[in-house]
Every structure is written in structure tokens, then in C-alpha cells.
Specification:
This protein has 96 residues and is mostly helical. It contains four helices and no strands. The protein has helices spanning 14-29, 50-64, 75-78, 84-95. The two termini are 22 Å apart.
Length: 96
């Protein structure tokens, strides 16, 4: 759909972004959502491997592209995202 006809929604609130990331991670990693906290490390606390993080990125890009045309998480930025909080901050910087 051409960008000029795309209906732009308001940017998500931080809590919405956390909920989205938590729910996606819980689904991908087969965890209870309550096990995912903002301070959780993807690898150390949640046991996520690189494939799980790629799945998370794809899910976030798909979900957030409805609100922000062309939303992407760059591959080189992925290595800097170590915790759920890092991912939330990254998304908030780009959709705000």
C-alpha cells in the first residue's frame, strides 16, 4: 500500500510495546508471559538463541509496520539488544 494512503495510527505506548514483546517472546520460547520481565536478558534469563531473536524481530516488524510505515530492526542493531528493556527502548526510539 502506498505510504500516502496508509492510515497512520498513534505511536504505541511503552507498556503496549512491552506487552507485545513479552507476548511474542512467550510464544516463541514457550514460556509463561509472567516469566518475561523488562530486565530479562534474552540469552541468560530466557534462553533465547539467535533464531528465536530473529523470530521476535520478524514479529515486531510485522506488528509495528501497521503503525509506523517501514518499521525495521536493522541486523547490525540486533547484537546490541541484550535485554527486553533494550528492545523496548529501541522500538520506542523509532516509533515515537
Amino acid at each position: 500500500m502506498p505510504a500516502e494512503t496508509h492510515v497512520r495510527q498513534s505511536p504505541p505506548e511503552r507498556e503496549e510495546v512491552f506487552d507485545l514483546i513479552r507476548d511474542q517472546l512467550a510464544d516463541i520460547l514457550e514460556l509463561e508471559p509472567a516469566q518475561v520481565a523488562e530486565s530479562s536478558s534474552f540469552v541468560d534469563d530466557l534462553g533465547a538463541d539467535s533464531l528465536a531473536l530473529i523470530e521476535l524481530v520478524e514479529a515486531l516488524e510485522e506488528e509495528l509496520s501497521d503503525r509506523t510505515v517501514g518499521f525495521r530492526i536493522e541486523d547490525e542493531d540486533l547484537e546490541d539488544l541484550k535485554t527486553v528493556r533494550d528492545a523496548i527502548d529501541y522500538v520506542m526510539e523509532r516509533v515515537g
